[in-house]
Amino acid sequence: MAAIAEKLSRSVVGIAGLGGLGSNVAIALARAGVGKLIIADFDKVEQSNLNRQQYFVEQTGKSKVECMIENLRRVNPAVKVTGHRVKLDVDNIPQIFAATDCIAECFDTAGAKQMIVETALTKMNGVRIVSVSGLAGYGRSNDIKTRRISSRLVLVGDGQRGVDTCKILTAARVGVAAMHQANAILELLIDEIKP
Amino acid sequence: MGTLKINGKEETFADDKTPVTIADLLQELGVDAATVVAELDGQIVEKANFSDMSLHDGQRIELIRFVPGG
User: Fold this and answer.
1) For residue A30, is it left (φ>0), alpha (ψ between -120 and 50) or beta?
2) B70·A131 Cβ contact <8 A
3) How many other β-carbons are positioned within 10 Å of the β-carbon of residue B26?
4) Interface pTM (ipTM) of the complex?
5) What residues form DSSP beta bridges with A82?
6) A111, A185, B57, B68: which one has the fewest Cβ atoms less than 10 Å from its Cβ?
């Protein structure tokens, strides 16, 4: 128990995107006692986000990074948080997340997901990435799986249900995927040494 | 005739249908290359090289497809 807490407190996790996945993953990892989170998003909190993202009504209109720093401080003030209010791309991802043990891919578009997974695996030494594909709609909780693709890549989701075909995102099903993602990250941090 | 192991499943192609590159294979499968991370025999192939990377009989290819939502 103490050994696990010690490992987690020495760990650094990058959260790429602070929407339905990222806001939930960040809070779960903060509660678990991960030592440092590097969070990044360019967007502001909107009314339409509140159906699934971990922000509050009075935070609408403010930057997600700023709001998440505040929310994480209220959840667990021991966690160190570095925020980057930027649009992540091929060039800045290796710099911003250089010091991380693991990255959580929490983007919304398929192209951005592809971009960060390819960047992490080809341009960053040893960093692991946990990515999500297929979390839209409702129900079918058990279709969401965690799969180990390689030593550095874990993929969560049902691989099928995108917001393009399912039309809706729900707090419940996005939450199932986000907790798979956070849980996979804890497993990597606790059980495995960064390759 | 050529055989590729795609996402763990053996797929056999007739001579004139055997995809020459990863880009050809994705086109054949009807998959948008912009949403795919590809691993050929355990090595990541960058999207920019999909049209240059030739496929050979017996290779193992993992296609990781992303759908939107997060």
Assistant:
1) alpha
2) no
3) 21
4) 0.93
5) A38
6) B57
